[in-house]
Amino acid sequence: MKRKYFRNVPNFDYVSRLPDSKYINDYVQTKNLFKRVKMSEEIFGDLTLFDKFYIDNNERPDLIAYKVYDDPNLDWLVLLSNNIINYESEWPMDQITFNNYVLNKYGSYEAMFDVHHYETQEIKDGNDNVILQKGLIVPQDFTFTYTDSSTGSEVIATDCTDAVTNQEYEDIIQERKQSIYILKPIYISLIEEEIRNLMPYNEGTTQYVGKTLVRGDNIRLYS
User: Nearest 10 degrees: CA dihedral of 3, 74, 50, 176?
Assistant: First the structure.
């Protein structure tokens, strides 16, 4: 069974700007791409409904949908499950595109390996308690003072930062994008039902024509 997202998207009547339009009140009907839904917090926040998925190099949403759901038309569900709106900026790039992006962003191979920022190292006291977590962004000369629970003495930690290069920084962002959530197949009908309930227009606005159609104001009628 093929499931298509856009069959649920309602329509919008735009004032026609086509050159062969004969009347000033001609309209062109199209899908309202500004009408979108997001998963309810009740569903989106329940991790038991999802599986973790790691995107391999050059895998598109439709390929993942085919692999997981046996239906490439459910590519929209892959994006919706991760609240991805802008595919170009929120989906991981293939390796060649990514390499070119980093090079163009920083201008040279040398600049790619300049320091982007510094992060803390993990610090533990004598009882193996974590006193300072790893990965906090700090200045290069950051120091940290704490009382060691095993000795009761004050300790000043210096040289407790690591440099993160521009290349490493971009790699981290890319890796985060590659780790996504996939809605388990048994819950597809739950999301489809939610979309069918949320997509229709509500009565009460001047643009309302029906549950699946609104019409834009035609200022040409009053000019």
Answer: -160
